[in-house]
Specification:
This protein folds into two domains: 58 residues; 168 residues, MetI-like fold, CATH 1.10.3720. It is 71% helix and 0% strand. α2 crosses α13, α3 crosses α10 and α3 crosses α12. The chain starts with a helix and ends in a 5-residue tail after the last helix.
């Protein structure tokens, strides 16, 4: 009997490992191919297939050409400024609304939550034109506020925060109110320090979305000096109607993902540490 149970566990464990290994390979191999190609000067005209996993002509000239043709540092700086603003606005909105829906329990809170979540079911393409008209009427086109203001509505973050705060005892709020604290003080001093894990998760999700966004910045930003890194790479990719050297595009793309990987690795470790430090005693 024990042998049969162990055999089933071994088989299920093996299947899980194989599935995870296959998923990892399908994710890592294209990324590795991109990075290797970015150092291959022989790939300046075309990319060979099947892929090579060692550059035939190793060179840093691809990066030199990329930086000389595209103001990469400026575009990366613009993307960081936009990402920081959107993260701050969306996170504050989600934390405050999630706290209100979880702990205040006001009349109609479930309807408010459903209304917020229903906005996630509407494709962006359907709201894109009305949203642009509003931004245009407010004279915010070609400014970062055209990207910051829509970030106030972060329904998915609200849902995440509410679900997380539902697991925290409401006794904390009652104790704070009895001690004379107002509602914002209870949120700021008691619940917000316990929300580090979910806040870090939101930062990762928001940063990935904003950093990789192309369509909305393309619509609202006109001045090239304000372009994001994705707009800059797209502009360079089809400059004068000519598709430039693939290796150069790979070099620029590799540089563009470095901040994303750095933020993800940093916050992944922070999430694990925060979860370990914010246990709730029952």
């Amino acid at each position: 009997m024990m042998a049969s149970v162990k055999r089933k566990r071994f088989v299920s464990h093996t299947i899980v490992v194989l599935v995870l290994a296959l998923g990892s390979i399908t994710t890592i191999v294209p990324l590795l191919w991109m990075v290797i190609t970015s150092f291959d000067w022989s790939a300046r005209l075309n990319i060979t297939f099947p892929p090579r996993f060692w550059p035939e002509d190793p060179s840093f000239d691809t990066y030199r050409v990329a930086f000389s043709n595209v103001p990469m540092l400026r575009y990366i700086g613009n993307s960081l400024v936009i990402s920081a603003g959107v993260i701050a606005i969306s996170s504050c909105s989600a934390l405050l609304s999630g706290y209100a829906l979880s702990k205040l329990r006001f009349k109609g809170s479930s309807i408010v939550l459903m209304a917020a979540l229903s906005t996630m079911m509407v494709p962006f393409e359907m709201t894109m034109i009305p949203q642009y008209i509003i931004i245009y009427k407010l004279h915010l086109v070609d400014s970062y506020w055209a990207i910051y203001l829509p970030a106030i509505n972060y329904a998915f973050g609200t849902f995440l925060v509410k679900s997380f705060m539902d697991q925290l005892p409401s006794d904390f709020r009652e104790a704070g109110i009895m001690d004379g604290a107002n509602e914002f003080t209870v949120f700021w001093r008691i619940f917000l320090p316990l929300c580090h894990p979910i806040a870090a998760t939101m930062v990762i999700l928001i940063f990935l979305h904003v950093w990789n966004d192309l369509l909305w910045p393309l619509l609202v930003l006109k001045d090239m000096s304000k372009f994001t890194i994705q707009l800059g790479l797209a502009l360079f990719s089809f400059k004068d109607g000519i598709n430039p050297m693939p290796a150069i595009i790979m070099a620029g793309t590799t540089v563009s993902i470095v901040p994303v990987v750095a933020v993800y690795l940093f916050l992944q470790k922070y999430i694990i540490a925060s979860i370990a430090m914010t246990g709730v005693k029952q």
